[in-house]
Design brief:
The complex is a heterodimer of chains A (369) and B (294). Chain A is globular and about 55 Å long. Chain A is α/β, with parallel strands linked by helices and 369 residues long. In chain A, helix 3 links the parallel strand 1 and strand 2. Chain A is 46% helix and 14% strand. Chain A has helices at 2-19, 21-28, 44-54, 66-75, 90-96, 115-121, 145-152, 161-164, 166-172, 183-193, 203-216, 228-233, 244-257, 288-298, 301-311, 326-329, 338-341, 352-367, and strands at residues 32-38, 57-63, 82-83, 132-144, 177-179, 222-223, 239-243, 263-266, 272-279, 344-345. Chain A contains 18 helices and ten strands. In chain A, the strands form two sheets. In chain A, strands 4, 5, 6, 7, 8, 9 and 10 form a seven-stranded mixed β-sheet that branches. A three-stranded parallel β-sheet of chain A has the order 2-1-3. Chain B has 294 residues and is mostly helical. Helix content of chain B is 77%, strand content 1%. Chain B contains 13 helices and two strands, in the order αββαααααααααααα. Chain B has helices spanning 2-32, 53-62, 66-73, 75-107, 111-122, 129-140, 145-152, 164-189, 192-200, 205-233, 237-242, 250-260, 264-293, and strands at 35-36, 43-44. In chain B, strand 1 (35-36) and strand 2 form a beta hairpin. In chain B, helix 4 crosses helix 8, helix 8 packs across helix 10 (205-233) and helix 12 (250-260) packs antiparallel against helix 13. The radius of gyration of chain B is 24 Å and the shape is globular. The mean pLDDT of chain B is 89. Classes of the chains: A alpha/beta (369), B mainly alpha (294). Chains A and B meet through helix 4, helix 5, strand 6 and helix 18 of A and helix 4 and helix 12 of B.
């Protein structure tokens, strides 16, 4: 009996020791960093390089929806040290107390972030207290140039009408149309196409957008937020509403496969959403020092340039632009020119009640009821 | 000592039920009366234990049935219930039609073969459920195994992946053992001499089956039907992987409420109503059984 108590006592002592700040510091020398990031959103070689330089092992999981990420992080106890939400979700995490402030003394590269990006992020995270921007991109139309020309003739793919007008969609249905399964992103572009405020707080506006998408729905093969990369690259589908870098990844994959599939990306003339994904550390992250080390690593210009070359998204690191592949940094749809920027808008954070109505309406779009 | 042991035996199932059913049920019920909020975890109110009894009172005052009221306002939920129950009922019916002949056939085989056949029914369980459902995607997709075979036979191709047909196929496939095994258990135990007696009294094999074997096997059919119907009504993986975006089933609605809408109270309310809907037929069945036994 006495032996049993002794064992229990020893166990408690060990557990307390493991939880104390001292032990945490020791693990900063190594330990494991658990990252939860968007799918197809890093150069895997960079993770190997990070481990080689710091001795910190990396566990890497992926998601393809801001909503799923938020559900998990707000639930707590995910065990993740670094997560990657989008700009308009950041205030929700801060209000809920789900992410912790950064220790800027451990992030020497912060000064290289472009002033424009800092201005963009100011409404979401004043003073950059909580998050470090990672990549930015737009929402647009990814399409199979040859197959679309066969069906639409000389009509240029430069308008949202290509994916929202049933008359055009009817001609594209047989070769496959994909929509994103992301309610906030889809409503923002649909509202904008209808000439309404993409950040509207009026339920009537969302009703109109729902009606628009329900009319388009019969021509949509699938609602999915990541499958379209491979589907476009393999030539299985013709048109997808997608994120810029993902479409460009599809283009690269098709070129690598030499399968004759020619993918293009357009930011429609009516305008679209530009978004920023950011690194954040959950409040209960087991290894926050490792997360800081990773952010500092990704703030190095030569590292983030390599990440951009793989993901085909622009990064906000001013010192890295010249190190990015020329075809990427000269692409006006990636490194946005003032002419393109004029057409873009930023999504704001929605209130809980509005979000609930919008999500219910989105379920109706998905199920066609 | 012996009495103590029998008392323990009586208490254990209740303890089991309390820990693994009643307690989680109460947690979900409590959650369904709260409201979604931007907090960790994302609902309010929560009990403030530091306030003692006043904290508990404030918590109870914060609970309301608003979430349930909302379930009645949106047709989506009713549609999801009806389509889940319809799919589960159709699936159960098909399972009875397929499972009964299989169970009957096995029970009429020589004992050694019988064992091998029962083993064959159980064998698929050795593979992960998820992998078996993924395999169906490979079979049903447009350029999949099914269409390759159809083309070889000179038949037109079918495109049933991401449709209700595919969901039904998946349900029937996944739950077949749950129908066959209880039926087999009843049919296997059946006293052969009853059939002989019926035939001695002039019954044809067919009428002996309908008037002797079939009534005896009914409890097995009912058990199999319940074992299949209840989990099928709440199934998530099969409609998610094989169904299309228009396949409306409750398992998916709960997932959407939880992960897409970030509304834990609504997800809980949907789950509670599903449980209530399923409990009623079970209670009716139990009462019927009790009557028969009496």
């Amino acid at each position: 009996m006495a032996g049993w108590w002794k064992a229990l006592g020893l166990g408690v002592v060990l557990a307390v020791a493991a939880c104390s700040p001292k032990a945490e510091k020791a693990s900063a020398e190594g330990g494991t960093l658990r990252i939860y990031n968007w799918s197809d959103y890093i150069d895997p070689e960079l993770l190997t390089q990070f481990t080689k330089e710091t001795g910190i092992k990396v566990t890497y999981d992926t998601f393809d929806s801001n909503e799923v990420l938020e559900t998990k992080v707000l639930q707590g106890g995910t065990g993740y040290d670094l997560v990657v939400p989008s700009n308009h979700n950041v205030p929700r995490y801060i209000t809920a107390g789900a992410i912790q402030p950064l220790d800027k003394s451990k992030l020497p590269g912060l000064d290289k972030l472009s002033p424009e990006m800092r201005a963009h992020m100011e409404p979401f995270d004043a003073g950059g207290k909580y998050v470090v921007p990672y990549m930015q991109g737009t929402i647009g139309i990814g399409y199979n140039a040859d197959k679309v020309r066969q069906r639409l003739g000389d009509m240029k793919v430069d308008s949202w009408a290509v994916v929202f007008d049933p008359a055009v969609l009817a001609k594209l249905k047989d070769c496959g149309v994909y929509f994103l399964d992301a309610s906030e992103d889809m409503y923002a572009v649909a509202l904008n196409y209808l000439g309404k405020d993409p950040n509207s707080t009026k339920v009537e506006d969302y009703n109109a957008a729902t009606a628009l998408m329900l009319k388009a729905r019969p021509y949509v093969k699938k609602f999915h937020s990541s499958e379209y990369i491979d589907a476009l690259a393999n030539g299985d589908i013709c048109v997808a509403i997608g994120y810029s870098g993902d479409v460009l990844q599809a283009k690269d994959r098709a070129a690598d496969a030499k399968n004759g599939v020619n993918i293009a990306y357009a930011v429609p003339k009516e305008g679209s959403q530009v978004w920023f994904d950011v690194f954040a550390i959950p409040k209960d992250a087991p290894n926050a020092p490792a997360a800081h080390a990773f952010m500092a690593f990704m703030l190095r210009p030569e590292i983030i340039a390599k990440a951009s070359n793989a993901t085909r998204y622009a990064n906000p690191n001013a010192a890295a632009t010249s190190l990015v592949d020329a075809d990427l940094r000269n692409d006006p749809n990636v490194y946005l020119t003032p002419e393109v920027s004029k057409r873009l808008f930023v999504t704001t954070t929605k209130g809980q009640d509005l979000l609930r109505d919008v999500n219910r309406q989105w379920t109706r779009v998905l199920t066609g009821r | 000592m012996r009495r103590e042991r029998s008392a323990l035996a009586a208490i254990l199932p209740f303890l089991w039920l309390a820990i693994f059913f009643a307690f989680p049920f109460l947690l979900v019920a409590k959650l369904s009366l709260s409201d979604a909020a931007l907090a960790m975890p994302p609902y309010a109110p929560r009990i403030d234990w530091s306030q003692g009894l006043a904290g508990v009172q404030a918590f109870l005052a914060g609970l309301d049935g608003e979430t349930y009221a909302r379930l009645t306002q949106d047709r989506l939920y009713l549609d999801a219930y009806l389509s889940s129950l319809r799919l589960a009922a159709t699936g159960t019916l098909i399972l009875l039609l397929i499972g009964y002949p299989i169970a009957y056939g096995i029970s009429r085989c020589p004992p050694r073969l019988r064992q091998a056949l029962v083993m064959a029914v159980i064998l698929p369980f050795w593979t992960s459920f998820l992998i078996r459902i993924y395999a169906w995607i490979a079979i049903l997709k447009p350029a999949g195994l099914l269409n390759v075979v159809l083309a070889k036979l000179g038949l037109p191709a079918v495109d049933i992946l991401n449709t209700e047909t595919a969901v039904l196929l998946g349900l029937v496939y996944a739950y077949l053992p749950f129908m066959v095994l209880p039926l087999y258990a009843v049919l296997d135990r059946q006293d052969e001499t009853l059939i002989e007696a019926a035939q001695d009294l002039g019954a044809t094999p067919i009428s002996a089956f309908w008037r002797v074997t079939f009534p005896i096997s009914l409890p097995g059919a009912a058990a199999g039907a319940l074992l299949c119907f209840i989990p099928m009504a709440g199934e998530f993986v099969i409609p998610d992987l094989l169904g299309g975006s228009d396949t409306l089933m409750l398992g998916k609605v709960i997932w959407t409420e939880f992960f897409a809408n970030r509304d834990w109270p609504a997800a809980s309310a949907v789950a509670i109503v599903l449980l209530a809907t399923l409990t009623i037929p079970i209670l009716l069945f139990e009462r019927q059984q009790a009557k028969v036994l009496r």
